[in-house]
TrEMBL record:
Its main location: cytoplasm. It is found in: Cytoplasm. Keywords: Chaperone, Cytoplasm, DNA replication, Metal-binding, Repeat, Stress response, Zinc, Zinc-finger. A zinc finger (CR-type) spans 134-216. This is Chaperone protein DnaJ. Homodimer.
């Protein structure tokens, strides 16, 4: 191969190693057989690879500049012979922009022993009133905490970690395999130190070198007003302590709201049913309805809000009628105000009557001409013409 190697890469003779590497990457991206499979381009790629193989090695470059044979007669001009020493990493770097190159290419380095701990999740059941108005709970959690003997470094008292002799503290070792492309050099985590770059000769007996132990501890969690089932309360840095005494993760408390005997929650609204006698529905009445605040008083809490509200049932109220009490629902979690309390009226029909009661009801039925009522069925859906007919012919 008579062409000047510097001209092949398109660099001056005084180019430094970085300029030679950049030139090779640029040409390799253009000429690689996977990009341009024609024979002429493949031959040009071999020339570029051969030039880079020589000029990237200081000793071979010095021999070439002095006019000698940089391979000592070993490798062919193609640069892919058995004597080829450029790394497959160089080709990968040309396409993926890696920072390493050749045998001297840098790796990722040792992985740290100190890492952030994992987040933890616990579930907490609360009453509806506690979810609505907020509460404070004491929790017992079982998580990883900092080892008090070694204070997180994992070594027994009086000892320290030592540099791994296998990898020299790099945490990685080179593996070389031969292929049709030459020598493929890869980096693998060091098996001796498991990629840490150091070895603990005397691990702490309390934590076995992990820097943390499991322990049960107490936490106070404040449940904000307005939470619902599925809401998660985050406690920063109260989760698992990381390996090597690393910073703790977060603890999440997931809320589950227990069912209430009287109220059902729909968003921020509360729904309940009130059963009234037939006579009360017909004549009208008012009742004192307990509110959700009554549960707080029952559990010993103090509140300035009324625990009952007067519910006005108008005369002639039908079963299924809903009465809305504004602002008596659940406080909004991230906002002002409260939802509503929706009361559904259920009219109770008596099933057992004595003679006098039955006599009075029959007398009432006669006065209202309801002794033999003609029941009628109302269609669920009317046609457009039917609705127009009813509008112009009211009953």
């Amino acid at each position: 191969m008579s062409q000047d190697l510097y001209e092949t890469l398109g660099v001056p003779r005084d180019a430094d190693a970085d300029a030679i590497k950049k030139a090779y990457r640029r040409l390799a991206r253009q000429l690689h057989p996977d990009v341009n499979p024609d024979p002429e381009t493949q031959e040009k790629f071999k020339e570029v690879s051969h030039a880079y193989e020589v000029l990237s090695d200081p000793e071979k470059r010095r021999m070439y500049d002095l006019g000698g044979d940089p391979f000592g007669g070993g490798a062919g001009a193609g640069g892919f012979g058995q004597g080829a020493g450029f790394s497959f990493t160089d080709i990968m770097d040309a396409f993926f922009g890696g920072q390493g190159g050749g045998a001297a290419g840098g790796g990722r380095g040792p992985r740290p022993r100190v890492r952030r701990g994992q987040d933890a999740l616990i579930r907490l059941e609360v009453d509806l009133a506690e979810a609505a108005f907020g509460t404070t709970r004491e929790l017992k959690v079982d998580t990883a905490v900092l080892c008090t003997v070694c204070h997180g470094d994992g070594a027994a008292p009086g000892s320290t970690p030592v540099t791994c002799e296998t990898c020299g503290g790099r945490g990685e070792v080179h593996q070389v395999q031969r292929s049709f492309l030459g020598e493929i050099r890869t980096l693998r985590p060091c098996a001796a130190c498991r990629g840490y770059g150091s070895i603990i000769p005397e691990p702490c007996r309390e934590c076995s070198g992990d820097g943390r132990v499991r322990s049960r501890r107490s936490l106070t969690v404040k449940i904000p007003a307005g939470v619902d089932t599925g809401t998660r309360v985050q406690l920063s840095e109260q989760g698992e302590v990381g390996p090597g005494g690393g910073p703790a993760g977060d603890l999440y408390v997931e809320i589950h709201v227990a069912e209430h005997q009287m109220f059902t929650r729909h968003g921020n609204d509360l729904v309940c049913s009130v059963t009234v006698p037939m006579t009360a529905a017909a004549l009208g009445t008012s009742i004192d309805l307990p509110t959700l605040e009554a549960d707080l008083v029952e559990h010993g809490a103090e509140t300035d809000v009324e625990t009952t509200v007067e519910l006005d049932i108008r005369a002639g109220t039908q079963s299924g009628t809903e009465v809305v009490l504004n602002g008596r629902g659940v406080p909004r979690l991230r906002g002002a105000g409260r939802g509503d309390l929706v009361v559904r009226i259920v009219v109770e029909t008596p099933t057992r009557l004595d003679e006098r009661q039955e006599e009075l009801l029959r007398e009432l039925a006669a006065l209202r001409d309801e002794e033999s009522p003609d029941g009628h069925v109302q269609a669920a859906h009317k046609s457009v013409f039917g609705r127009l007919r009813d509008a112009f012919n009211p009953r």
